[in-house]
Amino acid sequence: MTDKIVNTSVEESQTDAANRRASGEFVRGLSGFRGYLGDKDFPAESGRYHLIVAFNCPWCHRVTLARNLLGLEGSITLDVVFPNRTGNGDAAGPNLWEFNPARIATLTGDALPECTVETGTGKGHRLVKQIYAAEGSNEGSVPILYDKKQNRIVNNESAEILRMLNDQAAALGSSLGDADRPNLYPSDISLRSKIDTLNGEIYTNINNGAYKAGFSSDQAIYAAAFDNYFNMLDTLEARLASDDRPFLTGDAFTEADLRLFPTLYRHDPVYYLRMKLNGARILDYPKLWRWLCRVYALRGVAQSSPLDHCRQGYFGRSWNNVIPLGPTKPMSYPKAYKHPDLAKLR
Q1: Backbone angles phi, psi at 282, to 5 degrees
Q2: Kind and range of the H or E run holding 111
Q3: Which residues make beta-bridge pairs with 79?
Q4: 105 phi and psi, to 5 degrees?
Q5: Which of 110, 120, 263, 343 is 20 to 30 A distant from 19 in Cα terms?
Q6: How far apart are the first and last CA of the chain?
Q7: DSSP output for 283-307
Q8: What structural domains and CATH numbers belong to the chain?
Q9: Per residue of the chain (346 residues), what is the pLDDT tens digit?
């Protein structure tokens, strides 16, 4: 049995959330399913668990990164929804995640080959909301960690899911031996403290900060989020430059790196425009760019969130559904992530 995982999500305060939203602030809600692997209700077993994700979603990206990096692709099955939700004309209503592998992406003019039907529950649901409804919940978010034996949702909080996958990787059937598998949250107390601090700062200013900037309708709230985002990028650039470390806490890739990557991966090709974060590109930060390319080169990372899904998901829900084709200079993305020298060291 493992110790229960508590508060790994760095959750946003819900104080006066309704009024804050009404005033133009983006306020992220809380996840309602918080079971944990290793408990008697959810023993860690190979082949028992299933993930439901959207590849465009950065919170899902955390989980697919962990699944791939930890060698769990063969022991935890996966379903992928279409990156855009249902529209106003859908009989079930708008803004719902759907399993629809035949749906045509406006970006490519074709179906996205990674999208699947729903296989985890055995019911072949069309909508993610139906999986929640079967348990009496009104939620509709992804990711979902699902127990195929008990037909129950285990957890739908990405930070907790990735921590559990790391803690239980061997028991869950990782294809990697202990020596080859990264430990995203090592037992060293000092290192854990650094990771926890970085997680909090990265969540507030970068992960959720991108949404605060992009989805808030108040100019002052947007401006504050914009400043916090780029100030944090400056801090992270200086951290990497201080001793030329390869990763945020030193020589080893940890959970802090994993949680930063989904946002920075999206910044130049998506967030720079869609989230109004046009202060600079990651390409303008030489150390962060090289860090980004270094992470992208790790086993399984490039497959964890195809960029076509990200572009389709964010721009496909904009007012005219037209998706920008760039940037293409100095090189198209994600091809650019294989070229760390694109960022010139200063």
Answers
A1: -65, -30
A2: strand 110-111
A3: 52
A4: -85, 130
A5: 263
A6: 50
A7: GGSHHHHHHHHHHHTSTTTTTSS-H
A8: 17-167 (3.40.30.10), 189-342 (1.20.1050.10)
A9: 344 544 455 555 656 646 545 566 544 445 479 899 999 999 999 999 999 999 999 999 999 999 999 999 999 999 999 999 999 999 999 999 999 999 999 999 999 999 999 999 999 999 999 999 999 999 999 999 999 999 999 999 999 999 999 999 999 999 999 999 999 999 999 999 999 999 999 999 999 999 999 999 999 999 999 999 999 999 999 999 999 999 999 999 999 999 999 999 999 999 999 999 999 999 999 999 999 999 999 999 999 999 999 999 999 877 788 999 999 999 999 999 999 999 976 5
Select from 203, 175, 173, 199 the least CA-distant residue to 185: 199
Q: What is the DSSP letter of 127?
A: B
User: In the 8-state DSSP scheme, what is residue 209?
Assistant: H
The amino acid at residue 313 is G
Cis peptide bond prior to 58, omega within 30° of 0:
no
Give 49's DSSP letter: E
User: What is the C-alpha radius of gyration for the chain, rounded to an integer number of angstroms?
Assistant: 19
Tokens of 220: 């002052």
Q: Residues with Cβ < 8 Å from 258, sequence gap 6 or more?
A: 62, 65, 66, 69, 162, 184
pTM: 0.91
* E strand segments, 208-304: none
Just list the catalytic residues.
Answer: 57, 211
Q: What is the spatial distance between Cα 226 and Cα 212, in angstroms, rounded to a whole number? A: 8
Q: Looking at this protein, which amino acid is placed at residue 269?
A: P
- Cβ–Cβ under 8 Å, residues 224 and 231: no
b/e sequence 72-82, b meaning 16+ C-beta within 10 Å: bbebbbbbbbb
